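Q: I'm writing up a methods section and want to include an example of the input and output format. Could you take the sequence below and give the corresponding predicted structure tokens, formatted cleanly so I can copy it straight into the document?
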Amino acid sequence: MKRFIFVVPEEEILIDSPRNLEQKLHVSVSVTNDLTTDQRVDRTCRTLEKMGFDVLLIGRHRTTSKTLLPRSYKMHRMRLLFDKGPWFYAEYNFRLFFFLLTHKSDMLVSNDLDTLPATFLAWKTFWITGKRKNFMIHDCHEYFRGVPELVGRKRVTATWKWLEDRIFPRLKNIVAVNQSVADLYFREYGLPITILRNVPFRKTLEGKRDKTQFGIRPDQKVILYQGAVNVDRGLEEAILAMKHLKTDAVLVIAGTGDILIQLQNFAATEKIISKVRFLGQVPFQELHSITLMADVGLSIEKDIGVNYHFALPNKLMDYIQARVPVLVSPFPEMKSIVDQFQIGEFVHSHDPTTLARQLDHILNDQDQCMIYKKNTAKAADVLCWENEEKSLIELVGKAIE
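A: Here is the clean output for your methods example:
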């Protein structure tokens, strides 16, 4: 058995492997999004690339997709006939399956349940035919069957569960975004799961975007929401809260999603559009400079399902790296981080007047804000990808033994 060394900053991880790394290994990483804003898969790809893999990230191209900014690894976006719904998922997995079969891959990485069928079938096909002995990792970004879009849709949820029940127990290398999601899957399938949290690379405080680019005066405060603009994330209430806010502030919404146009129309109808800025889809490479503008960061999802309840979103960790105090929902994973590091407050209610009072308090209590900012600096040093990626490196090493 040959041995090789994965080199990472300040350490070396020695792993037994039957493979000869003089010939670079290839990995295909699959998602169903358009690759523009997905920070988690970018971090995964960069770690795998650093370990010596030739990385290909596969997603889809939508009519609204922006040109991708250059990255060090290869990317491929498939153009599909269907954009959403069951036909989209069927077409995507059909196309992905044959794409994987016709491209060299020593490792396959599926992200969430919606890429799992094609990836799993390709992986098993390689083994059954004996053409290629590769290995597979499945990454659970969330508890997929608990996403808000599936709440109340019993037949659709049952279909996804049917698929998951037939594939998940046969997986060997599984990653989950936090302990709560890992526990949910463990209770269902009894499989060991590696925790890989949504934490960003360490960031500096340089490169802050000029507020005036977005029509915000330098002396105005910024309340920031960044991420997916979807249902039940408290965005309607945040917009209405701007009517009752006494502080001179602007609500900035950086992201896109199913209800973006609806929210824009809502803000106009409520005659509050002058206090709200919609930035639309922002490439993750440009997001930090916007986060640095914020005086408080929001993650105020409603408790409408297990996926939100057990969420540990990218945006919370991004706020921390930008030293931004937070106002978040008191859900287990977010509460644990905020309690541990004392970096912000929990939303008392989604009532717009109550929310406005909380925001006024945070924005105007300068002494407390300084404490929160100081604590985010401590949290940022701990909650960073440079620390977290060690779990991924260890898992990959064990997978290919």
